[in-house]
Amino acid sequence: MLMGKPTLHTIERYILEQQEQHPGATGRLTALLYDIALAAKLIARETTRAGIGNILGATSAENVHGEVQQKLDVYADHVIFRMNDHTGRVCVMASEEHDDLLHISDRYTPGYYVLVYDPLDGSSNIDVNASIGTIFAIHRRISPGNGPGTLEDVLQPGTKLVAAAYVIYGSSTMMVYSTGNGVHGFTLDPSIGEFLLSHPDIRIPSPGQYYSANHGYEKYWSPGVRRYVEWLQALDDDDRQPLGHRYIGSMIADFHRNLLQGGVFVYPYDARKPTGKLRLTYEAQPLAFIAAQAGGYASDGHRDILTIQPDHLHQRVPVFMGNRDLVERAEEFVQQYDADFLAGLR
Ligand code: AFP
């Protein structure tokens, strides 16, 4: 008897249904999201075999940030590019693993969308079997004409994003995406190879339960960040409950937990890293877009991350991201206490 059972939504069906709500839609974005989901399945297949295959371990190549690339990074980067270089849907790509733009071969017609991705974030966690992820950001092209996309197309503020998604390879694989109409999460059923709707219309619960920050760097923190974290720990008030602390060192895993359970992710500027570590276009913008669509907020301490106009491809940005009230509190602390500290970093 099937009556009364909830409808089974594959990611393809769900994306299509969302598209049908927009009568003018051409289907190009829908198709691009399918391609991304397919790339995610291929990467998930390899990440779950990482411990048994010879794919485990680092290659000798370094990426533009001087980090040793893992073999899975190389694989994920390649799969995403190859999945999107010939479809006629994308005019240019940018990957966190490459110095420069990834151009579409002149054998193929450049498309209308711009795809920016971090193929495997948190890759230093691969060898210890902790969760890792892939992040995608999609813009419309803004350069005139139908030729190859340009740097201008990639360097757009987050307010111009058409869609953002991430995939987390954890105890299960999940894809979470937004096209500006809420945030929806799908869990991969490996037995049928399909992403099934498991988390419709995700909203960040309030009050937030957790904060995520690398306490190992506390000695480099600014006075504002220190005071903020002490406030999260409720050190100033015996009667207030502290937030729990969780930090994996894999932004997707920390972000995903805080999205589902409420909390704030903090990767600030500090005495060693005046602009923090995380990349604006590859990591901060797409996750800020998803946070905002789930009712949350992301700030660099002074302004909404989505409003920042990037000026170069691998730009870094300080990040405070999660429940709106917790992020706004961070802004208050850093604006009150960090003016001198920041002036000293310049
Ligand atoms: P890797 O991809 O090199 O592992 O870096 C991951 C990351 O960009 C982000 O996912 C983490 O939140 C952050 O770096 C962790 O950095 P710290 O080790 O400095 O805390």
Report on this model:
- Strand 1 and strand 2 form a beta hairpin.
- The protein is α+β, with helices and mostly antiparallel strands.
- The termini are far apart.
- It is globular, with a radius of gyration of 20 Å.
- The chain has helices spanning 11-20, 28-47, 71-84, 151-154, 223-232, 251-261, 280-293, 324-337, 339-345; strands at 58-62, 68-70, 90-95, 102-103, 113-121, 132-140, 163-169, 173-178, 184-189, 194-199, 210-212, 244-245, 263-267, 297-299, 319-322.
- 30% of the residues lie in helices and 22% in strands.
- The strands form three sheets. Strands 4-3-5-6-7-8-9-10 form an eight-stranded mixed sheet, sandwiched between helices.
- It has nine helices and 15 strands.
- The site of 1,6-di-O-phosphono-alpha-D-fructofuranose (AFP) has 13 residues, from loops.
| Gap from first CA to last CA | 68 Å
Q: Report the count of strand segments.
A: 15
- Which kinds of small molecule does this entry bind, naming each only once? 1,6-di-O-phosphono-alpha-D-fructofuranose
Strand-and-helix sequence, N→C? HHEEHEEEEHEEEEEHEHEHEEHH
Q: Please mark out the parts with pLDDT under 50 across 5 or more consecutive residues, or reply none.
A: none
**Number of discrete helical segments:** 9
What's the shape? globular
Relative helix content: 25-40%
The major β-sheet equals:
8 strands, mixed
What does the average pLDDT come to? Answer: 92
Provide the spatial order of strands within the biggest beta sheet.
Answer: 4-3-5-6-7-8-9-10
Radius of gyration: 20 Å
Strand content: 15-25%
The assigned structural class equals: alpha+beta
